[in-house]
Write a structure and sequence with these properties.
381 residues, 6-stranded mixed sheet, 11 helices, globular, binds adenosine-5'-diphosphate, binds magnesium ion
Length: 381
C-alpha cells in the first residue's frame, strides 16, 4: 500500500489523475492510557500502516464525492456545508467544511481513500483519515497551516462534527510523529517532544468487537470528572486529575469506584515519565512498566477484556519479551509487546494459533517501527 496504489485506485474510480495525494498513519500508544482527556501525558508512535486521500477538483458540480476501498457506500456531500450522516464520509466532509469555513476557496472535489490500516481496532484510523484529508486539502488550496494546526482542526472535527468526544492524542500522533521517534505529548499544554525510539513494537489486534467501548468510555470520562470535582473541594488549585498526588486520592476517600479510576490516571501519568526517561537513557522501553500499566487498566480502570489479558499473560511467559499491555482505550482492540526483535518475530506464529484455539478467532499480528506522520505524497497542481 503506497501513493502509487492510491493514484491507481483514484484513476480506476474517476477515470482521471488525482491532483494531490496526502497520507497519514495510524498509531499505537506505548504508555499513557486514559491520561489524555485528563490533562496528562502520552507516548504514541506512528505505525507503518497508512491511509491515503487522493483529490481532484470537480468543476461545475454542485456536490463532492468520496469513495473508500474499504467501505461499500460512497458519500456525496457539499464541501461548503457539513451535514452529519452518521457514516464514514462524515470524517472527510467535515474536514472539507472546516477548511471552507476557515476561508479556503474550495471547489467541489472528487476524492478516494485507500488504506492498509484496520479501522475501529483502536489504531487511530479515524484520525489518520482526517489528517490525510487535511494534508491533501491543504496542498490543494495552498493553505500554509502547520501540521499542529491541522491536528487541532482534525480534533475539532472529530469532537464537534462527527460527535466523538476524544482526546487529542490520535490526531497529534498521526500529524506530528517522526520516523524513528515516539511522540511525548503533554495533552494540557499541547507541548511535544520527539524521543528516539528505534525498537520495533509488536501489535496484536484481538479482532474482537468493541461493543461496550462507547458507553463504558463515556462512563469513565464522567467518573474522572466527578473525581476531579471532589478532589478540588479539598484542593481548589488542582489543575487536572493527573496533577493530583496519589495520597490526596487516598485521603479523600472518594465514593464507589472513583478512587480506583483516579489512581489509575495519576499513576499512569507517572509511568509515562518513567518510560520516557528509560527510553532516553537506554534506548529501549522499560517493559516492567508496561506490565504495571496493564495491571492497573485491568483492575483499577477496568477496561481490559479476557482476550487482552490472555495476550499479556502469554507475553509474560515468552522468553525475550520484556513488556506488554493493552493499547488504545481497551474494551477490545489491540495490545502491544516490546522485547528482543528475534523473540517478537518468532513468537507470532504460536501466538496466532494459540489465540485461535482459545477464542476461536484469528488475531492480526505485525511488527512496526516508528514511522513518519502525515505528509504530502504527490502534488500535481
Ligand atoms: P479507530 O480510530 O480506533 O480506528 P474509530 O471508531 O474512531 O476507530 O474510527 C473508525 C471509523 O473511521 C470507521 O468506522 C470509519 O467510519 C472511519 N474510517 C477509518 N478508516 C477509514 C477508511 N480507510 N475508509 C473509510 N472510513 C474509514
Ligand atoms: Mg478513532
Amino acid at each position: 500500500m503506497n501513493a502509487d496504489h492510491a493514484r491507481r485506485y483514484f484513476r480506476e474510480i474517476y477515470g482521471a489523475e488525482a491532483e494531490v495525494i496526502g497520507s497519514a498513519p495510524g498509531r499505537v500508544n506505548i504508555i499513557g492510557e486514559h491520561t489524555d482527556y485528563n490533562g496528562g501525558q502520552v507516548l504514541p508512535l506512528a505505525i507503518d500502516r497508512r491511509t491515503y486521500v487522493a483529490i481532484r477538483a470537480r468543476p461545475g458540480a454542485s456536490l463532492s464525492r468520496v469513495v473508500s476501498d474499504s467501505q461499500p457506500a460512497r458519500a456525496d456531500f457539499d464541501v461548503h456545508s457539513f451535514a452529519r450522516r452518521g457514516q464514514w464520509g462524515d470524517y472527510v466532509s467535515a474536514v472539507c467544511a472546516a477548511f471552507a469555513s476557515g476561508g479556503a476557496r474550495l471547489p467541489q472535489i472528487e476524492a478516494s481513500v485507500t488504506s492498509d490500516l484496520p479501522a475501529g481496532s483502536g489504531l487511530g484510523s479515524s484520525a489518520a483519515l482526517e489528517l490525510a484529508t487535511c494534508v491533501s486539502l491543504a496542498a490543494f488550496v495552498s493553505d500554509s497551516r502547520t501540521l499542529k494546526d491541522l491536528a487541532l482542526l482534525a480534533w475539532g472535527v472529530e469532537n464537534q462534527s462527527v460527535g466523538l468526544a476524544c482526546g487529542v492524542m490520535d490526531q497529534f500522533a498521526s500529524a506530528l510523529c517522526e520516523e524513528g521517534h515516539a511522540l511525548h505529548l503533554w495533552c494540557d499544554s499541547l507541548a511535544v517532544e520527539q524521543v528516539v525510539m528505534r525498537e520495533a513494537v509488536l501489535i496484536f489486534d484481538t479482532a474482537t468487537p468493541r461493543s461496550l467501548r462507547v458507553s463504558q468510555f463515556n462512563q469513565r470520562r464522567l467518573e474522572c470528572q466527578e473525581a476531579l470535582r471532589l478532589l478540588r473541594q479539598r484542593n481548589p488549585a488542582l489543575e487536572n486529575l493527573t496533577s493530583a498526588h496519589p495520597d490526596e486520592v487516598r485521603d479523600a476517600r472518594l465514593p464507589g469506584d472513583l478512587a480506583k479510576r483516579a489512581l489509575h490516571v495519576i499513576e499512569e501519568n507517572i509511568r509515562v515519565r518513567q518510560v520516557v526517561e528509560s527510553l532516553k537513557k537506554s534506548g529501549s522501553v522499560e517493559g516492567e512498566t508496561l506490565y504495571e500499566s496493564h495491571e492497573s487498566l485491568r483492575t483499577q480502570y477496568e477496561c481490559s477484556t479476557p482476550e487482552l489479558d490472555w495476550f499479556v499473560e502469554r507475553a509474560k511467559k515468552t522468553p525475550g519479551v520484556r513488556g506488554a499491555r493493552l493499547t488504545g482505550a481497551g474494551w477490545g482492540g489491540c495490545a502491544i509487546a516490546v522485547g528482543d526483535l528475534e523473540a517478537l518475530t518468532s513468537a507470532q506464529h504460536a501466538l496466532s494459533s494459540e489465540y485461535d484455539a482459545a477464542f476461536g478467532r484469528k488475531p492480526r499480528i505485525w511488527l512496526t517501527n516508528a514511522a513518519k506522520g502525515a505528509k504530502l505524497e504527490r502534488n500535481a497542481r
